[in-house]
């Protein structure tokens, strides 16, 4: 029961951080594929195909939904048809993984069982077991622009900051080893909620949405930079 309560609390915390985001998508178990309608992953929560991990673009790689699992996939990865019981056993567009499973192949289970490096783990999976996760902006060197993404310090790799382009992407865009960095508050330099990571000549400048979120990220990064790997007492790991 304690494990169930902790899992539900982590899920609710993540949903609160990203309004409308369902933590476990799709919610279907393997044996339910094709028998129950899936909950579709929203288009704006991914920037790459959730199967082959190639980035989407407006011309050559458009978004499609697998009717079995609900993943957002590219045309190449969804160029399959399978009968779905929940839809009157009509042939519907599905991804390759679901096609292999629904047509009797064992390839899906074999691949699912392989070990994944953390850069290959989905953002939602990593965020559900994190010391801290939220949206941040990473400024470019001139401080005038930069990328907004989903930033995560995982519990199982607490000395590294992982950066995803979107909160449901299946591969991290990049990572920053935090050990040895200095965390600096830039509150006097800008009205925005700015802070930096600095080590030698390497500098990263971040913008948080709120003062409180900035405080939490500065605290979490400082602990990781100092080699502290456990969550603070009295504070939820991923809240």
Automatic annotation (TrEMBL):
Q: Where in the cell is it found?
A: Cytoplasm, Cytoskeleton
Protein name in the entry: FGD2 protein
GO MF, one example? zinc ion binding
Swiss-Prot/TrEMBL GO biological process terms: cytoskeleton organization; filopodium assembly
Its GO CC terms are:
cytoplasm; cytoskeleton
**Domain FYVE-type positions:** 43-103
Annotated PROSITE patterns: PH_DOMAIN, ZF_FYVE
Sequence intervals crossing the membrane = none
* Principal location class: cytoplasm
What keyword terms does UniProt attach to this protein? Answer: Cytoplasm, Cytoskeleton, Guanine-nucleotide releasing factor, Metal-binding, Phosphoprotein, Repeat, Zinc, Zinc-finger
Q: Which SUPFAM superfamilies would you find in this protein's record?
A: FYVE/PHD zinc finger (SSF57903), PH domain-like (SSF50729)
The PH domain sits at 117-226
Task: Name the InterPro entries on file.
Answer: FYVE_RhoGEF_PH, PH-like_dom_sf, PH_domain, Znf_FYVE, Znf_FYVE-rel, Znf_FYVE_PHD, Znf_RING/FYVE/PHD
């Amino acid at each position: 029961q304690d494990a169930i309560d902790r899992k539900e609390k982590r899920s609710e915390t993540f949903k609160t951080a990203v309004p409308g985001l369902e933590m476990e998508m799709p919610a279907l178990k393997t044996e339910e594929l094709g028998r129950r309608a899936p909950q579709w992953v929203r288009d704006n929560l991914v920037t790459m195909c959730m199967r082959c991990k190639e980035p989407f673009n407006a011309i050559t790689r458009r978004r499609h939904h697998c009717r079995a699992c609900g993943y957002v996939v590219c045309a190449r990865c969804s160029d399959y048809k399978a009968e779905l019981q929940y839809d009157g056993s009509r042939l519907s567009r599905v991804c390759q993984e679901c096609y292999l499973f629904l047509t009797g192949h064992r390839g899906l289970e074999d691949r699912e069982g392989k070990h994944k490096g953390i850069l290959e783990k989905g953002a939602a999976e990593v965020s559900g077991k994190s010391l801290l996760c939220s949206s941040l902006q990473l400024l470019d060197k001139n401080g005038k622009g930069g990328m907004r993404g989903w930033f995560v310090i995982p519990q199982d790799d607490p000395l590294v900051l992982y950066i995803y382009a979107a909160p449901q992407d299946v591969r991290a865009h990049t990572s920053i080893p935090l050990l040895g960095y200095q965390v600096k508050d830039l509150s006097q330099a800008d009205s925005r909620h700015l802070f930096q990571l600095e080590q030698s000549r390497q500098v990263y400048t971040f913008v948080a949405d709120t003062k409180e979120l900035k405080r939490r990220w500065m605290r979490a990064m400082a602990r990781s930079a100092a080699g502290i790997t456990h969550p603070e007492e009295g504070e939820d790991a991923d809240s």
